[in-house]
Amino acid sequence: MDSLPIDAIRHGLIFYILLVCSVCIHEWAHAFAAHKLGDPLPSAQGRVTLNPLAHIDTVGTVILPLLMIFAPIFLGTGAGLVLFGWGRPVEISLPNPKTRTRDDLIISAAGPLSNLALCLLLAVIGGQLGKLPLNLSEL
After folding, report:
1. Catalytic residue among 12, 20, 27, 103
2. Which of 120, 97, 117, 98 lies closest to 109 in space, CA to CA?
3. Is 95 helix (H, G, I), strand (E, B) or coil?
4. In the list 39, 73, 123, 133, which could disulfide-bond 34, CB 3.0-4.6 Å?
5. How far apart (Å, rounded) are the C-alpha atoms in residues 44 and 34?
6. Which residues in 37-46 are b (16+ Cβ under 10 Å) and which e?
7. Residues 6+ apart with CB under 8 A from 2
8. What is the pLDDT of residue 80?
9. Number of structural domains in the chain
10. pLDDT tens for residues 15-67?
């Protein structure tokens, strides 16, 4: 049996785990920012956590990404080149009308900024791992 499907499945599952972690951190950052700005709703809904179950959207975090991973493999075209998804949006109800616009901008920016920070962290870790005398392709 050709090893391409096994490698493609392994790589796809690694990318899927990274996607779920990224979605959870992104949605947690929105919820955390809202919580710190005095919004009680994310805490009441249990969203100020990194637990994936609090942030997973059935279509955007499970069905679509797994289809993007496995459909090309089972159709015989190899691994898919693109993987994306989304989590359940964090609901907010900003209590202070005087700072609502500013708070909304901060909460909205928290998610993408968390993705940027995660990207930079993983780039640094990947750069350091690249200096090690390991053959990571054998894992």
Report:
1. 27
2. 117
3. coil
4. 39
5. 12
6. bebebbeeee
7. none
8. 66
9. 1
10. 999 999 999 999 999 999 999 999 999 999 999 999 999 999 999 999 999 99
